[in-house]
Amino acid sequence: MKHTDVETLFANNLDTANLSDKQRSVLKASLTLFAQKGYENTSTLDIAKLAGVSEGTVFKHFKTKDGLLQAVLKPFLQDIFPRVAGEFVQDLQATQILEFSDFLRFAVRDRIVYAMDNRAEMKIMIQEMVKKPQILEELTTRLGVLLQSAINQLFVSYQDKGELVKWDSMRIVRTICGVIVGYLIPNIIMSDECLDIDATTNEICEFLLHGLQP
Amino acid sequence: MKHTDVETLFANNLDTANLSDKQRSVLKASLTLFAQKGYENTSTLDIAKLAGVSEGTVFKHFKTKDGLLQAVLKPFLQDIFPRVAGEFVQDLQATQILEFSDFLRFAVRDRIVYAMDNRAEMKIMIQEMVKKPQILEELTTRLGVLLQSAINQLFVSYQDKGELVKWDSMRIVRTICGVIVGYLIPNIIMSDECLDIDATTNEICEFLLHGLQP
Amino acid sequence: MKHTDVETLFANNLDTANLSDKQRSVLKASLTLFAQKGYENTSTLDIAKLAGVSEGTVFKHFKTKDGLLQAVLKPFLQDIFPRVAGEFVQDLQATQILEFSDFLRFAVRDRIVYAMDNRAEMKIMIQEMVKKPQILEELTTRLGVLLQSAINQLFVSYQDKGELVKWDSMRIVRTICGVIVGYLIPNIIMSDECLDIDATTNEICEFLLHGLQP
Amino acid sequence: MKHTDVETLFANNLDTANLSDKQRSVLKASLTLFAQKGYENTSTLDIAKLAGVSEGTVFKHFKTKDGLLQAVLKPFLQDIFPRVAGEFVQDLQATQILEFSDFLRFAVRDRIVYAMDNRAEMKIMIQEMVKKPQILEELTTRLGVLLQSAINQLFVSYQDKGELVKWDSMRIVRTICGVIVGYLIPNIIMSDECLDIDATTNEICEFLLHGLQP
DNA sequence: GATGAATGAGCATTCATTCAT
DNA sequence: TATGAATGAATGCTCATTCAT
What we know:
Largest interface: A-B, 36 and 36 residues
Order of helices and strands of chain A: HHHHHHHHHH
Distance between the termini of chain A: 29 Å
CATH architecture of chain A: Orthogonal Bundle
Shape of chain A: elongated
Oligomer: homotetramer
């Protein structure tokens, strides 16, 4: 139940691709700078300098600056998010014996930790989603499919035990995610470093348990 | 209980300032284009063309492009949002006789309509907030003060009637806002035009009533 | 019967257009450099420097480097060539009283002088024609129409006097032009400065008179 | 009297040089692309891709891109053109028995076919000649020497028979070439595929015979 | 006040060329 | 010998900003 953080997953993802060391460092520099200053305010020269390579190298594999952005986001969309979601689902299923309240507390805490650990990356994603909504669309579809199939039985079992309101499981997921998002977005945007995770978890769970009881 | 939409308020706001017709049209053009393409991807020439003025005029009053952005956001932050919040508070206070559930339904619906009516403007705010978090900070502080003083008595009365959980009123506000934000953000980002307002209101309220009952 | 040379016509043409002094000098610098080094080997910075303006100015009116080339060639294609052709036709018609041999000598000499006076400009045209054949197409059509209507009667009168072979007048024009082109192209390409105009005129005319007699 | 076309000669020429298969394919790719898009608009990467080799290989033998161009043009200038000219001269000499008119018809037709068969290659040569006039100089000198020595006797014999004007043989050659060039250049530039060779030959010869009769 | 020509630093991108493997 | 990643100068082009009229 120990989780790999996104940065490590990202680095691993790079290793599997057929990229040279320099190209890898270009991607890392891009991630850093896009998160720090936003895509539009990061010049390819900035990236080249931080990566310790020439500008030509930046374009050798990624063709365009946008290609670079895609290459930075691709692993998040196509590999890391699903894998993290998968890990999450496995964890959830391993907790079936728990009561719904314990389960919820675990799940919420897990996601909060995950989101706050990767504040920077989340910021890029939010920026890009606002500019290109289809990213959000693809992501929700992708994660939706993944979660629904895995989580359905779990919710049914809680519903059978009378611990969970008998809504459609997607609605429950949406509700939980919505509440978490609503709580965390200010913290992500403000790069709030001193969020009290336990207190936040408690606050969110107390409310969710009320709202989701039958 | 009829609300002025943001665009009209914006135009009115412009009228009160000591700006010439040309300067006004510059601000309007900026609002339109920033919402459409984002701040970074809008050139001052674009603005000048849409406003029907010369490039020089764009800089006459607003000095820099960033000054223009500030001038576009200022009325939202310093005037329109507070005024809309004030209207909203007045409406809420006028409904004191209702039960909490009716009150909540009204409030939620009102905010959803407001947010969806001004999707474009919301998008700029989100973009800018992600880039410059202090905007979010200022806004929350500002609205927080305004709402707290106005809404406190209202919540206490509902709490006395046993219709509302006895949390701190700010926590209740934060919770309600968080849930609404969590629900609406995807629709705002995706400029979703066909949101079923009644269904969404019902879904949110059903959940909130559960979660906020004592 | 005195002819304005292309450079003067070009300058005049510029004066009529609504261009600033700087833009005019950009066009002149472009003409010079394109002729000297060819389009591809001339950078916009080269042009800016020679014109004594900033690079931005180069693009202000002409949008792209290709736009600049078009602006340089346009007056040749749409204004100067036709006007020169018109002048030429008028001159020819004014010489009707002469014998065909005198007429031919005059015409050939006139065109040789014209071509050699504007060697540089001719070089650009040749380069561009090789790259974009439709320029040649447009030019031949344009000049063809102009010459045919004007020259037909003239040739008929010479044919009636038994001084000129009874070919279609377009064929005669094509033949004369072809011979001149065949003779001059080496000199234009090599920017040959010491062409003996009288000797060349004699050589061409002697041959053409033989070939074009009935 | 059947002629090998330039492309085959080119390939043969490559075979004789001590080049590897890869180098040969680099030269072929260069010829193709330079003809298609011009020297300046062809990148060494384009060439490498079409040749199916790496970029490094392109530079292994030819050192620079210009070296590549020289290597492409060298066989034309130093080998193919002279050889073709030689073939042509031999053919001409084999026709001594004919009348001048038959001889001319054959010669003109032969050159037209040759030029039109190799339109693409001609285009490169024209482009390069305009940019670097010394190519034209070298070529004319080279061909001049070759033709003069071979053709002098032939012309004298026709002149003795009273079929050919008693001009210097170089002037006659220049005249014939000039007329052909003047006729064909438009077709080469426009890559005109549907030239009626017989009609053109007739037209040119009819005129040349008039012009070159004593 | 308004204009729009002019600026010049900055940007993404290309490309001939080199060199370690 | 062949490769292709790396280079970095050069290029076409953009854009916020200034200023003379």
